Fold this sequence. Notes:
- This protein is α/β, with parallel strands linked by helices.
- 42% of the residues lie in helices and 16% in strands.
- It is globular and about 55 Å long.
- InterPro entries: Epimerase_deHydtase, Lipid_A_modif_metabolic_enz, NAD(P)-bd_dom_sf.
Amino acid sequence: MAEKxxxxxxxGFIGSNLCEALLRRGxxxxxxxxxxxxxxxxxxxxxxxxxxxxxxxxxxxxxxxDCRKALEGCSAVLHEAALGSVPRxxxxxxxxxxxNISGFxxxxxxxxxxxxxxxxxxxxxxxxxxxxxxxxxxxxIGRPLSPYAxxxxxxxxYADVFAKTYGMSCIGLRYFNVFGRRQDPHGAYAAVIPLFVxxxxxxxxxxxxxxxxxSRDFTYVDNVIQMNLLALETANxxxxxxxxxxxxxxxxxxxxxxxxxxxxxxxxxxxxxDVPAVHGPNRLGDxxxxxxxxxxxxxxxxxxxxxxxxxxLREACAWxxxxx
Length: 324
């Protein structure tokens, strides 16, 4: 019988892509989401396409009972539920803390009591904080630069303690600037790639924070799905109770990103080639440069990313053209 897996935050951008990937490979999937940032349109098509193997639980990870209810019959967890965004955490640290720390702890407690075989969770590259070392290597971090970064670091500490104290198998994935289909281009906290695409498709100038020379390791969602499935399935005892960079392993400046997006989108609409960018101030809490070493993930999990930035941007831009 196919394994039943809980995806928390399963109506979100990454979570819904994980739900779909699991369903397509034959798993039973339970999605727990309160729709605070997740979207019904991300999961309703899955309910129609997989009526027997997909279940939606509307609930909140801040409620332990909701966590327990969602976990019934599940033997593994992909924990994606969180309040993302550094600026949001700076504006409202209390809610970010309640969701990302108290909610995470609830999920760990529920997973421990349900005796799940594996707990895979979304960690964050923000944990590297003020460390200037490049590339980022998992065992060398700095001090957090935002409330969001604090919460994601605390997640790693809690997972480590639960592994050692209760014998759980936990694996954390430090996501680096994930992008792709279903990532929301709307709202105050939209990520840079969907925001730029939305603006360019409307012939509007996107705002680049700072001079555009800050760089990021942009990671296409299909690479992230691969990492989650590898973390879920690994039988390598050395690979358990670790955190892994989840990235492509190359860095791109915001100016280079903007130029690449213009080139891809102007193939659909030549007028986009003439849209300029405008520059604003640097964002509070932003680190200047981010680049992951993915050697540990390759060595212990067999990770082999399938999509470069350009490959991912081509797929993402085609999706936005069809859906915006």
